[in-house]
Amino acid sequence: MDNQNKETKDCCQSCDTNNTQKGFWSGLLMGLIAHSGCILFIVFTILGVTTLSAFFKPFLASKFSFYFLIILSFILTTISAVIYLNKARLLSWLGIKRKWKYLATLYGTTIAVNLILFLVIFPAMANWRIGLGDAASLAVINQTNSKLSLEVDIPCSGHSYLIIMELKKNQGISEVIYRTPDFFDVYYDSNKITKEQILASEIFTSFKIKRVE
Q: What mean pLDDT, rounded, does the chain reach?
């Protein structure tokens, strides 16, 4: 009898572990969905695939696209949870209580992925050209250029790369450095471009400048 109870307990623990793993991978996928446009735009731009990066540019130029994808990711997460509970015949308040670990893993992973992308991945990718925190590179840029600091109304850090790429199309802008959550340090040659011309860049018709320093 004791062996039978032990086998049943071990089986239940194994099922719980498998379900938790499923919740993690589902949450990871849902978290990435919310930023798929930003991720693909950055990757294609870095790889030099201009045709594909241009395809995502109009989508990213709309601030509403970000909010749509965030809402979509949590809708899909909820649908995934409902399907799981329904298959297990636990689609009820009691079932939610019984499977709270799976649900906590699912939603927790979705939120964690969003935070990691917001706070770590996107800021690092935005500044990968000069090396994040490279004091020597920043010193050289600062000595040879004028500096303009902008606070821009971007919905998330994933849009920072789009702002940088669009600004650097202007002749005379040497470098653009992103600082979380929505600050951009623009280094430029004042003999080739003026402050007013920078502020009049087309990208700022979609993402408004909140403050200039």
A: 84
pTM listed for this prediction: 0.77
In CATH, which of 3.40.50.10610, 3.90.1530.10, 3.50.30.10, 3.30.70.100 is domain 135-212?
A: 3.30.70.100
Q: How many CB atoms lie within 10 A of CB 126?
A: 25
- At 38-88, the pLDDT tens digits run 888 888 888 888 788 888 888 888 878 888 888 888 898 999 999 999 998
Which single residue is written with the structure tokens 């050289």? 140
Contacts of 61 (CB under 8 A, 6+ apart): 162, 203, 206
* Contact assessment for residue 110 and residue 73, using Cβ atoms and an 8 Å cutoff: yes
CB 139 within 8 A of CB 57: no
Residue the block writes with tokens 């993402």: 207
